[in-house]
Structures are given as C-alpha cells and as structure tokens.
Amino acid sequence: MTETKDRFVNFDFALVNVLIGLINAGVRRVVISYDIACKYNIHFMERIIHPAFPLVTPQQLKALQNMEIVWLVPKFHLAAHIEGCADRFSFNWMKDVGQTCGESVESNWASLNGLATSSREMGFGHRRDTLIDAMGNWNWCKAVNEGNFCSLFFSVLLRDIIGIRQPACGTLQGHPQGLQKEKANPY
C-alpha cells in the first residue's frame, strides 16, 4: 500500500460506514462534496476492498457498485485546482444539485470553536445537546438574515458591475414582507 493510499484509510472507513447506512435506507444516489474529491475518488473502490483491510463485505460492495456516487469539489476549493477539475467536479455542471456551493458544512466551524472549552468536560449527552442547540441557533440566524445578505450582495453587485450606488428595488429592511425579526429564536 502506498503512502498516499494509507492517508485516506480513516476517511475511507468513515465514508464507507455512512454509505452503507444510506444503502440500508434505500438511497440510490449520493453527492459527495470533498475538497480533494478529484484525487480521492480515483482508487476509492480498490482501497475499500484491499485484501489487507477490506472495509466492505462482498454484498456491501455489490450494493455500493449499484449506487450512483457523484464526486464534487466545493466551489471555493475548486478555484485552486487544475482546469480539468473545474469541468469534471464542479457543482455548476452537475444534474440535481442546483447552485450549491458545497461549503456550507464548514461555514459554522468558527462559531463552534468557542464551545470547545465549554463542552470538553461535559458528558456525552449534555455535550451532544449543547452542540445541536448551537448548530440549530446558527441555522436559525442564517435563515433569518438571508434577506439582508441577499440585499447586500445585490447592492454590491450592482455597484461593482453596473455602477449603481443604490439598488432600484431598495433593500428589504423597510419592506412589509421583509425579515420577520419578531419571531423568537427557538434555539
């Protein structure tokens, strides 16, 4: 086994277990967003059936081969890859993924770093509840502020591309159907 293949063994183990769970749930198509999916997927099947440490049974291998696995590189990371990666591993050209960026999983890590010192001495259940609440709060705040983000994004876009200082439609802040901040955060 080469050194490169050895580096993937931990992720192989975790991913195979997730994929087996998805197969058992009846999922037939999986889209995997991974920073180095262009390199990682090359020998994936060979690594998981390696005779020294097989990660799947023959039945599981057959089920995996019948599953459609789509490998994509998140948009932020794709810019640093070679030109061929952009064509084969871009969310932009893939069916049924819309305009997904593939980075949203990483976007809340910075906010969760502060919980490390608070939660490291908690028991399993309390730590899990705390992290779930923190992630729920992050998702709630992201959803509530999405209108402001879109307004700001389009304001900057119009300013930079077209030269307009104020968007023609205004912002969502005074809009009667704008953000409903009176709703309490359930987290």
Distance between the termini: 47 Å
Mean pLDDT: 77
Oligomeric grouping of the chains:
single chain
Low-pLDDT regions: 167-180
In total, the number of strands is 2
Sheet-strand content, in percent, reads: 5-15%
Output the radius of gyration: 22 Å
Class from secondary-structure proportions: mainly alpha
Shape: globular
Helix content: 40-55%
The tally of helices reads 11
What does this structure look like?
The chain has 187 residues and is mainly alpha-helical. The chain has a domain at 1-105. Helices cover 52% and strands 5% of the residues. The protein is built from eleven helices and two strands. The chain has helices spanning 3-7, 9-24, 37-40, 44-48, 58-66, 75-78, 83-88, 109-113, 115-119, 124-144, 146-162; strands at residues 29-33, 68-72. It has a two-stranded parallel ribbon with strand order 1-2. The longest helix has 21 residues, at 124-144. Residues 167-180 have low confidence and may be disordered.
Outline of the structure:
The chain is mostly helical.
